[in-house]
Amino acid sequence: MSTSPINTKLWTPRSVEETQQIYADWADGYDGDMQTMSYATPGRVADALTRFTGDRMAPVLDFGCGTGLSGGALAKAGFTTIDGTDISPAMLDHARGKGIYRDLWLGTPGEVRAKPGAYQAIIATGVVSLGAAPPQMLGTLVAALGSGGLLAFSYNDPTLAAPDYIAALDALQANGSAELLFREHGPHLSEKVTGSDVIVLRRA
Which residues pair with 104 in a beta bridge? Predict the structure, then answer.
């Protein structure tokens, strides 16, 4: 795991360019590292989403899809129409090779390239987090859903300790933009004994 940033800089504030470089360097070893560290959150996010949707043929957007681990978890849970986007070309190359996605594209930081309502479900596993997408991205993702659409995402333990991210989640509920359907703490990465909250919001 010589290129893994887990023990040094993964959950620290940084620029978009630094984030892209980290994942470019890590792309080839990412899946192996995650397997070694018992990465549980993709499966937990997919399982949480299944609790609130009966139509697993409807398109789901895997936002920040990385190498496709979250898309694989969605497919295992029975979802059949999965699109993915990420800001790392190197990670997307690995995702493309898995044959999971209907469509994949290189994303623009801070944006969701989808018309509101195009997806009735979006997942963002480990994406809106300390050292990755900023807190306001949570509102951008909710805004990309149609009324009644679902956002399933995770906040790892370092993010749960960051007040701005909690404030962003609270604000969406307080202003009536979204309703909290599910929130549960559980395993994330075993190597650091790091947990995460898996959360499901429904857009008003």
Answer: 84
Neighbouring residues of 25: CB distance < 8 A, sequence distance ≥ 6: 3
Distance CA 51, CA 152 (A): 11
For residues 103 and 86, what is the distance between their CA atoms, to the nearest angstrom? Answer: 12
Q: Are 70 and 62 in contact (CB under 8 A)?
A: yes
Question: In order of start, what are the domains of the chain with their CATH numbers?
Answer: 16-203 (3.40.50.150)
Average pLDDT in the 179-204 region?
91
Rg of the chain over Cα atoms, rounded to whole angstroms, equals 15
CA neighbor of 114 nearest in space, from 56, 55, 61, 57: 61
pTM above 0.70, yes or no: yes
- Sort strands 121-124 and 150-156 into parallel, antiparallel or unpaired: parallel
